[in-house]
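Morning, I've got a small favour to ask if you have a moment. You're getting the sequence in one-letter code plus the fold written as tokens. Thanks so much in advance, here it is:

===
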Amino acid sequence: MLTIVPTPLGNLEDVTVRALRVLRGCDLVLCEDTRRTVKLLNRYSISKKLARYNERDERSVSEAAALLRAGKNLALVSDGGMPCISDPGWRLVALARAEGLPVSVLPGPSAVVTAAAGSGLPADSFVFLGFLPRARGRILKALKPALELGRTVILYESPFRINRFADLVCAEFGRDTRMALARELTKVYEEWLTGTAGEVRDRLAASGPVKGELVVLLRSASARDDSSGPEGEARRPVMFVCAGNTCRSVMAMYYAAKAASDRGLDRDFSSCGLAADPAAPPPAQVAAVLEKEGVPFSGHSPESLTRELAEEASLILVMTRSQKAAVLDRFPAVFDKTFTLLEYAGQGEGDVPDPFGGDEAVYAAGFRRIKKAVDAVLNKLAEKELK
């Protein structure tokens, strides 16, 4: 059995009872640095054999794996926090999973979530980048798309590079970018710097050399903080997308608006096409199908999907898998809110066929499938509002 055991970030009292039990009962503790781990074990009067685990050393990984195959109980720890999260361990876990060897993970300290909770920045959804590359170009390549998602971005940085990093953020993303810097979490000299990137940079420059372990949190000044909760999402439309925005997306939008109103669900809906022609109105079959369903139809002008519309939507539901791929190819930053209609509805990974060119019966069959999926989507959105 391999057990992943998180250990205190600094304050040795932040260890769980279960973690201590595992450390006392294991056959061997695999450590990032035995000198750090022995301090924790001594604090709790635990005498246990320790071995250094080096993720970059094939022999170290293979020796640990051999012990697991032999039925030994191994506890894997890092110098502090959760192993495998920007710390050694993932290769051994991956190997154990591949071979069907048992792996258990204990909850516990993590610098990422500790910093997120204390930063004052929205943390309902965030992007964790770990340690960034050292080259400026590669830093920007990692950081720019992450910030464009409109989420809080969390990363680790060296005290020797933090001033240069703060300069980069101000120069490339603006002094008004929101920033929080957590230093030496849970330790005696724990310190927080929060504000804009410009303010944090100025305070760093005035404070002299920086020491200790750092967690940096960033959020674009333009990111909306009200979009994380149900009320914020309700002000941002659920968007349906198909090829020309004349058939499937139109029927889905009109039906969703009526069904949501009937349920008392406060949501806005919109529709777009990947290649919409504003001069091409929906076929008469669309109006006929909606009329038979009792859905008011006031006419529709096709609109093409743009970056602005995609970013404004709270959820993007496309009719086919190929259309989903096309949306993400154009606008990769919306990957976390783009699904096929059937996928988000929990109705498999299939497509809603294009009825264009068919008779009213073909449109009616397509609408029935759309209606069923939209009903499931509305149920899902309603459940989210209740949480």
Observations:
- Residues 265 and 382 are 7 Å apart (CA to CA).
- The chain has a mean pLDDT of 92.
- The radius of gyration is 26 Å.
- Residues 360-386 form the longest helix (27 residues).
